[in-house]
Amino acid sequence: MLFWQILIDGFAISSLYALGATGFTLIFGVSGVLNLSHGALMVAAVVAAWVAGGDLGVGSYLGASIGVAVGLVATMLTYFVIVRPLQQSRKIREQEKEIFILTATLLWGIMIQELIAYLYTNNAKTVLPIVEGVVTIAGVRTPANEIFTAVVCWLVIALLWLLVNRTRAGKAVLAASMNARGVTLLGIELSWVYMAVWAIYGVLVGIAGVLLGMFLGVSSYSVGPLTASAFSIVVLGGLGSVSGSLIAAYVVGYLETMTAYLVSPAYRTIPALLLLVFVMYVRPRGLLGRR
Known about the structure:
The protein is mainly alpha-helical. It has helices at 2-31, 38-55, 60-88, 94-120, 144-166, 168-178, 180-185, 190-215, 223-237, 242-262, 270-282, and strands spanning 134-137, 140-143.
């Protein structure tokens, strides 16, 4: 029974990680940014959906939509207020910009975390589920919302794949991830590509955050673990590799689920971080990384 419980719960949480990590990988592959405020953006989306659905009483559907919208707005603020000014700064040497952006996004995430804690305390917030009820799978009673979460995650990932591989705008994004200078030679404004990628990332962050809030619930304390999990997944899968991130998401998701059930939820992120250290030692570019 415990085996099936871990298998089902692990699949749902891994699907959430896969959705979030896909966006994380996308912005790194195109704009070269590792956004360490990732967890804070997800929590902001959760809190917005929680406030809208609970305090404002707008219902689960509209509350979830508001949460996704807040995730998008917070992400675009991150880009325009934090990342873009540093990328375009002439006072910072090119080889130093990456560390400046890493530090700035980390501090930005801490600011969002503290603002959420100040306004809404550190208590866990759970978003109203869109799908209610319980289903039985292999003798395990599972919330229907958990199955809904995994299905939505993979539908969104499939839509993202179609967008990137079957549309002209998506192919421009794909080309920018391979050769940014070549894209500009084709007459495509690179700044618009960056904005589009960050907007896509914001939507993915919002959806992943709201679904996580429905599935497990989060608090301001979740910011660090969520960022650590996303970072572990992206580095483990290989920086810039979406397929590698999808594989790594399931490795990390199941490691965390097994640790939570077999040891303690307090230590759920430790095995994944230890695995990350090992992989960085034996294969620094990750499972499917190009660099």
